[in-house]
Structure formats: structure tokens, C-alpha cells
Amino acid sequence: MRLLTVNVVEELLPGPKQTGFTAIDKRPQPGRVPVGERGLARDRVCDTKNHGRPDQALYVYAEEDADWWAGELGREIPSGLFGENLRTEGLDVTGALLGEVWRLGDEVEVLVTAPRIPCITFQERMGEQRWAKRFHQAGRPGAYLRVLRTGSIAAGDEIEILSRPDHEVTIGHFFGAQEPAKMRVMLDSEVLLWDEIRAVAERIASRG
To answer: What is the CATH number of the domain that holds 133?
Structure first.
């Protein structure tokens, strides 16, 4: 398991009216890139209402899922097209558990916090009809990460799974099926959850 690329914003682009500009245009960077609690050095966030919180410090997408989309759409999905900071190889991002901890390279440690929810900016970026709905139905959302330990990372760095919590709610599950029983088990565990994710899980758990 390794990092294929580390991506930061290339240039700000005009975005939907409500957000003005967007920093979704990410491109691979050479060399090592410092990682702070808010994400990668030299990266930007424009829509601070919906992005840029510590639990959204990094967005990661798997090369395997990008390859799947390339086949579905009949076009290349170069690293950074989805606005991801990290493109990985050999790591099951969709199957990662909420609260799972990874080490990136020798220094950086991150916590898996949430699936990415497609938005109007992503819709405009892709230029595909019904893109947000298709992305949701495909169940390959990628994941947001919280930085637990800062440092630097670079393309080629190995990824190690340091710990997995004792529940069954994966990124894919939370993005899709959302079974109340599994949510209750997760909530009863000692897993560290983003407050917004905990609130959603509590609503889902109350249904069953």
C-alpha cells in the first residue's frame, strides 16, 4: 500500500455562485510536502462553510476506484481530478472503518473520519450528467482524514494501517446502507468520531 501522488491546488477556478471560487483543481507535487493539522502545505480551501475543518484535513481516493470510473466514463481520471489530496494504490479506502488509523510514510498519522459527499462544485468540475447521483450510487466516495501526527509525505511513501476499531461501519457502509444496528455498535464502541458523523449515526441508530 502506498501513496501514488500528493496533490495541492494548482489554481483557483470560478465555482458555483454561492462559493465564488473553488480550490478543487489539485495537481501532483514533486518532493516531500509538509502536512499540518489543517492539511497540506500550499493547499487552499475556498468554501470554508463545507470544507477545511480538521476532520476534513485531507481527502484520499484510491487508484483502483479511479480506474473503475475511467472504465465507466470512457475517460482518464488523472490524480487530483476529484479534488483529492492523496491518490493511493493497494489500499481499500471504501472498506476502511470510521476511526481507522493509518501511517503515511515515516511520520504522518491520520484518522479516517467520513466519506466524501458529492456537491455542486464536484458536479461542475466533472461535467457529467447527473454526476452527483451517479457518484453516490457507485458507492466509491473516497474518505476524509484527520491529521493526528504531523510531518511530511511524498509520492511513493508506504501506507500502514495502525489500528482498526471494533465495529463494522466502513466508509462505503456509512455512504450507503447505513444499518441502524451497525451504527449502534459503532456508537457503543470507544472509536473517535467526528461530531457531525456521530450526530448522523445517532439519527440512523434511532430508526431501528
So the answer is: 2.40.33.20
